[in-house]
Amino acid sequence: MIKILSLNVNGIRAAEKKGFLPWLQKENPNFICLQETKVHDPEILSDELLKPKGYNAFWNCATERKGWSGVVIYSKEKPIEVKVNFGDNILSKEGRMIMAEYNRYYLINIYFPNAGRGKDRLDYKLEFYKKFTKYIKRLDKKKPVIFCGDVNTAHNEIDLARPKNNIMNTGFLPIERAWIDKWVDNNFIDTFRILHPNAKDEYSWWDMKTRSRERNVGWRLDYFFISKRLKRNLKKAFIMQEVIGSDHCPVGIILNNL
After folding, report:
1. What is the per-residue burial (b if ≥16 Cβ within 10 Å, else e) of 32-61?
2. In what order do the strands lie in the sheet with 31-35?
3. How far apart are CA 60 and CA 91, in angstroms?
4. How far, CA to CA in Å, does 138 sit from each of 86, 142, 167, 227?
5. Which is catalytic among the residues 41, 150, 159, 181?
6. How high is the mean pLDDT of the chain?
7. Hey, CA dihedral for 63, 73, 49, 236, is it positive or negative?
8. Over the stretch 145-154, which tens digit does the pLDDT of each residue have?
């Protein structure tokens, strides 16, 4: 059995001050994938963050500008290979993606772009979706894929509190949501929704400026997808709304026989 967690920390040093490391040791996952670390050089971090006790650490940081983007995988098991360079394309930029290969699957931690800053950024996000979809389809032909992170899009109306108010807003545009449809069409499973098809009010992000978390006016932006052939291994998928410290909360899965 393996337990994998994912969390957009909205700054890993801020998360450390809010009790991230004791929480990690208490939860004791096999893997945890963090997004938006906002670290340009991991060596500036405390030893406990750089490589928590009992874990290997694999970082991908944004070199384009400081205090922006960034992902890390903390893993108890050493991978066969780790990749942060995916060729001369958008996937290799802005420290948004890291892939770790294990004997029976690939694990990808990903932080999709936010399209909230105008058309250029929406085009960038859509191109990122396009390249990523091609990449996971190629990997899936070799062995199953598990990918998780901040997708920055709510898939369906059930995945946000006020869908009708947001139909023309980035993060819920039909053109963005269509890429999640493509993952499903290409035999990838939204783990939470496959196990909880009718669960409402289950969100992973809230706007802190409007104190929307107190009213649970949120969005489900954080996901675990797995190759369809791993469905038989999927035991649990969950959202940890009770965990505070970021504008996101952790999400997770438990898989058997991997």
Report:
1. bbbbbbbbbebeebeeebebbeebbebbbb
2. 56-60, 71-75, 31-35, 2-8, 251-255, 234-239
3. 12
4. 12, 7, 32, 12
5. 150
6. 96
7. positive
8. 999 999 999 9
Does residue 159 have an active-site annotation?
A: no
Q: Is the pTM of this model over 0.85?
A: yes
| Whether pLDDT at 12 is above 90 | yes
Residue 114, amino acid: N
CA 209/CA 81 separation, integer angstroms: 40
Token pair of 106 as six digits:
């690939």
Report domain 2-255's class: alpha beta
CA distance 173 to 192: 21
- What pLDDT score was predicted for residue 119? 79
Structure tokens that stand for 97 in this block: 């993606």
| Amino acid, single-letter form, for residue 109 | N
Characterize 77-95 residue by residue with b for buried, 16 or more Cβ atoms within 10 angstroms of its Cβ, and e for exposed. Answer: eebeebbbebeeebbbbbb
In the block, residue with structure tokens 């998360």: 15
- Residue ranges per domain, the chain? 2-255
Q: How far apart are CA 258 and CA 243, in angstroms?
A: 27
* Amino acid at the residue 111: Y
How many of the other CB atoms lie within 10 Å of CB of 228? 15
Asked whether 242 and 199 are in contact (CB, 8 A), the reply is no
b/e for 134-169, b at 16 or more Cβ within 10 A?
ebbeebbeeebbbbbbbbbbbbeebbbbeeeebeee
DSSP string, 79-119: PSEEE---SSSGGGSTT-EEEEE-SS-EEEEEEPPP-TT-H
Which amino acid would we find at residue 62?
A: A
113 vs 124: CA distance, rounded Å: 8
Give the tokens for residue 52.
């928590």
